Amino acid sequence: MARMNLYEVVHRRRDTRAEFTGEEISPEVLRRVLTAAHAAPSVGLSQPWDFVLVRDESIRRAFRDHVQAERSVFTAQLDQERAETFSRIKVEGVMESSLGIVVTYDPDRGSPAVLGRHAIADAGLYSVCLAIQNLWLAATEEGLGVGWVSFYREDVLRRLLDIPTRVRPVAWLCVGPVRSLPDTPDLERHGWRNRLPLDDVLHYDSFGRRN
After folding, report:
1. What start-end ranges are recorded for coiled-coil regions in this protein (predicted)?
2. What is the dihedral of CA 181, 148, 29, 32, to 10 degrees?
3. How confident is the model at residue 3 (pLDDT cuts 50, 70, 90)?
4. CA 74/CA 6 separation, integer angstroms
5. DSSP string, 95-107
6. Domain 6-201 belongs to what architecture?
7. Contact between residue 18 and residue 170 where contact means Cβ atoms under 8 Å apart
8. Is residue 157 within 8 Å of residue 125, measured between CB atoms?
9. pLDDT category, 1, cuts 50, 70, 90?
10. Confidence band of 211 (pLDDT split at 50, 70, 90)
């Protein structure tokens, strides 16, 4: 596989759903991807993340069923036109992917004095998101797809994986080899939302000042 430069990886990354092949990930590749995630910057070098690798089919099926129930809850909130658009969008690849990687946040990691978190309590959570991004980019470079599932209740996932009460499950990531990565993100392709141009979100010196 041809190696990509950083900018190619950033723009090639996709939130993957339907493209998984179900093939196994080699232990060496998985280790490289997780090592990249673990190399992320973190507030106060607290490294407040953990990675739960989920291969058990019964656990994955139970989570998939919960996700589908939450999809129905969301669908009920939509008007008819939006619901029709949403019906074409796949929101998970839990059973199709090779494994699930659940990334968690432990606010007690590095406590009681986490350098840099005293004024911004969510800095630890931001650190976990940086680890997820590292994982995603490394997986893309390795030819893997990643799909972040967000249609779940945290308490349900916490009980399913025996996650301690103080620990927050931040993401269930579907990970595995894919047939291909689509050129256009699913939400754009199915007409849910279009990407904003960079200039629409640029401000100069104060919010709202455009030049």
Report:
1. none
2. 120
3. confident
4. 36
5. TTSSEEEEEEE-T
6. 3-Layer(aba) Sandwich (3.40)
7. no
8. no
9. low
10. confident
